[in-house]
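Per-record layout

source: Steinernema hermaphroditum
name: ZP domain-containing protein
length: 365
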Amino acid sequence: MASLSVALFALLFVHAHAIPIPNGQIGKAEVECGEDTIDIVFLTEDFFRGRIFVVGHSDDEHCVSREVGRKTTSISVRKDQCGVVTTRSTNPPGLFVNVKVMISFHEEFITKIDRGYEISCFYMQADKTVTYPLTVSMRSLEPFTELAEMPRCRYEVVDPTTMEPLSVVSVGNKLLHKWICDSTAPSLWCMTVHSCFVEDGSGTEFVILNDDGCAIDRYLLDNLEYGPGDLMAQKEAHAFKFADRVVVNFQCSIRLDIRDGECPVPTCPDLSKQPRKKVVRRSPVTQLIASDSLADVDVRAPTLDVLDPQIGMAPRNDLALRGSTAYAGDCISRELFILFAGFTATVIFTMFGMIVYLSRTPPKH
């Protein structure tokens, strides 16, 4: 009976923690490189309810397909629309036509099961000499397709020497802020870290990196350095804390785009040559900013406790709320107090002994 209960509990646990995936793509996309259009066909597990669009042109009705209600859906992209890139090749002679397409199983948002394709069609130049009018249709070759899942991003604050995660530091300690996105095809994506803020655990938030990905106060966090990997950014900084709080939470947004050449890096002013800017509180109401980016991911670093050794480990009331025990800075160190107490006790006992001795000694006549 006990084993049956354990098995039933395990089954319920797995069922409770499983996240259902309502739909998905079967196999790879089928691509046909036509004379005027590129046609892509997808086969789905269930009836399709989302949309297919050309990356960067999701608001253009000519670049979006919503063939829903079937298990087969497709999109036809004209070669002279939707930002399709055409490149001439001399060896072999012909044309490369490139387009980036996303199949999204949600009507508005990008989800885990969505897929991105970069499709290239090569049109071979006909090598013929004619002496009379002749219409020669271009030959379509086998397209190149690349399947890529959405990257998974994280934010870490580590020791710059050991690279170990940190949970408790002191004001002024060196920290290394790291943003990393893991992807099966890292060369397909570009990342931009932006809109970072710091929070004290009670709702007070201050912006330290603006919407463009530029620093506001270099004493808190300077402009970021991108690399050394394709989807990595990092920056060293010194630990700081709020006046009456130990908890420091860092959160940022990461913008993900399909790579088109070199990944752009935010162009930010050199803060060392400018007057110090005052950090501002983060507005509780965030406004959506129109962007051609594929997705924005919010990442949060693990909670960091920052202590101030100049005034003790931390304010007593804050540590009491967190269930910690610490000693605030004493006016006199313990060693000095013990030495002073011992010396005082010795003097008292010596004087008491002298009084007893003198009281027992008879006076001389």
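summary: Residues 172 and 195 are 24 Å apart (CA to CA). Residues 1-18, 126-142, 285-290, 314-331 have pLDDT under 50 and may be disordered.
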